[in-house]
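Dissemination and training. As part of the outreach component of the grant, students in the summer workshop were shown how a complex can be specified as a set of sequence lines and then modelled as a single object. The example used during the hands-on session is reproduced here so that future cohorts can follow it. Participants entered these lines:
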Amino acid sequence: METTTNGQAKTSLPTLTKKDFESGVDPRWCPGCGDFSIINQVQKLMPNVGVPREKIVFISGIGCSSRFPYYMNNYGMHTLHGRAPSFASGLKVSRPDLMVWVITGDGDALAIGGNHFIHAMRRNMDLKLVMFNNRIYGLTKGQVSPTSELGKKTKSTPYGSPDYPFNPPALALGAGATFVARAVDVEGAHMGQMLKSAAEHKGSAYVEVYQNCPVFNDGAYTYMTDKAVRADSILRMEQGKPLLFGKDNKKGIRLNPQTVHLEVVTLGENGITEKDILVHDATHADPTIAFMLANITGKPGFPTPIGVFRSVRMPTCDELTWEQIEDVKAKKGPGSLEKLLASGETWTVK
Amino acid sequence: MSTPATPTRKIQKVDSVTIRFVGDSGDGMQLTGTEFTKASALAGNDLATFPDYPAEIRAPAGSLFGVSGYQLNFSSKDIHTPGDQPDVLVAMNPAAFKTNVADLKVGGMLIVNTGAFTGPNLEKAGYKSNPLEDEALRQNYRLFAVDISQLTETALEGSGLSSKEIARCKNYFALGLMFWLYNRDAEHEIGNINKKFAKKPEIAAANVTVFKAGYAYGETSEVFLSSYEVPAAKLAPGVYRNVTGNFATALGFAAVARQTGRQVFLGSYPITPATEILHELSALKDHGVVTYQAEDEIAGIGSAIGAAFGGALACTSTSGPGLALKAEMIGLACITELPLVIVNVQRGGPSTGMPTKTEQADLLFALFGRHGECPVPVIAAQSPADCFYAAMEAMKVAVKWMTPVILLTDGYLANGSEPFRIPDPASLPQVKVSYQTQANGEKGEFLPYKRDAKLVRPWAVPGAAGLEHRVGGLEKDSLTGMVSYDGSNHEKMVRTRAQKVANVVEDVPDLTVSGPAKGKVLLLSWGGTYGSVRTTAELLQAEGKSVAHAHLRWLNPLPKNLGAVLRSYERVVVPEVNSGQLAFYLRASFPGVDPVQFNRINGKPIKTFELAAAVRELL
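and obtained this result:
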């Protein structure tokens, strides 16, 4: 492949540790910020993704989360508000040999950067996009974001927000993302798995991380993460397993054959057995069930799903681009500067 | 029409002819114009073209705003413009006639398709009676009333084509007639038609029939007393091809890819009149070019900056409104110091303005249109073929100095065409690419903002182990590139970035003057007005007037000797297709210099006779 990779040193894979991915700059996030947990998992993952450190690039936009690349000892770009996917897409198309991560937040990705976000997803560009969702603008000190709840009171909405929020995984699925997952900052090990799956996925990968902002939106997720309610309020989606939850795993998600909607049922009640429970299959080509699962988020009476909603392998934009280039080259044969200049209709003046 | 050819018809030799084809936007005038252009090129003429078309793809038929035109100046001499006033006007309907006849030279040849001068068409053009019946018209011009519609129908009688399909062939009648009138190679054109419509043989056959009918009409009817010949121009020996500015721009970038063996990356979003750069480069994938059609203007440049970070020779193409959207991104490319070429094909503004019409009104925006202190080199192409060299030079400077560079062209250059002598590859601007491969710090660390003597920082690209670093939009430490909010570091960085761009002057050749080195008037042009201003200067010099001409290619940095040149003349005249932006810039840059402005903002190139008249008044 003709890419501009010259000048680079050999890319052997020495054994690296988490520490090798720390830039040495201390993160300047507020104490207790969920971002620490995320960077911790990402740095832990890096030695194990099978790509040399110098070929991994982190690209971010603007916001608290977007300071991330400065703390990673990789190639990195801290770009403009909302625009990270555009840089990442250009880099990936130009250099398909690189592993490109996009680090973004709910305001960055879904408000000012909404357009770039949906197009990166629809193109199935091979990017790993991690969105820190704290449902607030942190760096500008507390305004509603596109994921803030209806009625939320903030500095910019002192009487409550009149906007309905985005459901980010549903948006990503609707836009055509081939990998969509959700994690929570307080569940490090699970988040690590989600990030690992995203790293292994080839194509547009979206990982939403529910992240607490202790200063401007503290406790945003306690309704589901508090120990007392966790079992009943979190649905852990696992590939090939029935969608059961609750203290004794007695509650489940069923696709009601009459209404064709998802509903919460209880094993042993009304003749419900495990056979009635929806078995999770994130690899189905049709994203409809994944979309339904994404849409139970925030619905009264339903748990919040975490895990992988969708994971489907499709040719990526960067792969298709380079296949096409190789095809055209093969068809047109070897060229030269002379041939290029003299192509088309010419005439000679003597 | 059935009379035999009259071989005794005389052929008149003429030096130069300007023809304008005008018709409905669906009448095929652009095709007619380009085909006639190709034939003139093959006949060895020097030429320049100017397509002028509406923003609507298919404006309502017969309407005044739906008129599409194509002007061509072909000559046995060295020419620089598509001509001011046409010698020949071919008008396919009343609307086209009405909007263009005033431009025709008095005594010029007016060929009209009388078949379209009927009730509804006359009404749509706002005529109460047929203007062709006006006696004054026949006194001012040589009117050739030809019922092209009917003659086309007659030629295709029994062809089995629908009346709509037949009507669409009539531009080939006009073309055939012009081929006869100017003694062009009809056989070659017939070959072209067959090639162009190879997939629709019945349409190809119909167009050939109509083309031949047009040719035969000229030959056999007694309407035309003579035909004309414009001898070949004395062009420099070599192989030529005809190029538009947009094609030449794309060719320049592809040439960079071929020359360097490095990937050229174009990130772009469609916008008139810049879109063809994206089209053309997308077709040159086999030459080491990667193109990416982004979701918007911002992502167009964003993708290019991303690619530049990865080591590609990156560019983006746009027009005024798109440049406005890219402004924040240019700031990022400036502060990160990544190489990038931004092509701005200027059009009538502000806002959507006049998308298909030319203007030079983005000069000050290119120079200053960003927040913060954000100087970038600015180069402007001077002719369609020059876009090729300007693109290569812009890339050369971007890479050499690690900076975004703005390349200004305009709608006139972008769509206009002229012969391009295919250069010897060895004579081209050399783009030199080198990536950092070693750490450069005293402790073995990599310092991405440690500069060389010219203040240029190293370009280390992902894949180079040990050189991992971060760039970004926050102000950075002058060595490590890490975030720095230190006031004195910021001042140092602002000044250093500005000085680096100022240093580019070493690659800016001194301004050359054609004409007297001192004297009464200096005409100073920039960008697309080169041709008009050059022609005006030659005209006045031939009259024995003390008039010199100089042309600015680099607008930032300005050539070192510019001040001295400006002060060598009593008056400096700055003609521009804007309200005086270069003049403003010169007043600010050279205190005491107060240029005489000559401004037109009518969406068209400057007319030489108007400029010449204005300059004569100063002498």
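Residues 317-332 of chain A form the longest helix (16 residues). Students were then asked to discuss how this feature might be tested experimentally.
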